[in-house]
Amino acid sequence: DAPAYTQAFVRQAMDLYDAVGLEDTLAYYNTPESIDGQWYMFIIDQEGVTIGHHNAMFRGRDPSLRVDSTGYFYGDDLLSATEAGRWVDYVLLNPATGYDRQKHTWIVRHDGLLFASGWYEG
Fold first, then answer.
1. What is the pTM of this model?
2. Based on the structure, what is the number of domains in the chain?
3. With the C-alpha atoms ordered 86, 55, 4, 72, is the resulting torsion angle positive or negative?
């Protein structure tokens, strides 16, 4: 059940943050060791900048500028997530297959930060 697993993966990251703080949480999620299959965490700070991602080239970026391969600007949808969480769907290149695929991302605002992860269809 990919949706339930994704939500649990994000919850686990928020629990880690609550237990050890931001610095140690980022130290873990900014490494490839934090990846579980196609699931990885990304964390966005209060200014809307990605501060947590296993791939350093994504850190420091403004997600509001994100556009998918169909031209859909999905970044604002990511940044508008609340404490209740929301799903944001967009089309991106799946690095595992090399093909554009629908990606489903669960994103939750927690203590002013945004915690997110997702999975690709197909």
1. 0.95
2. 1
3. positive
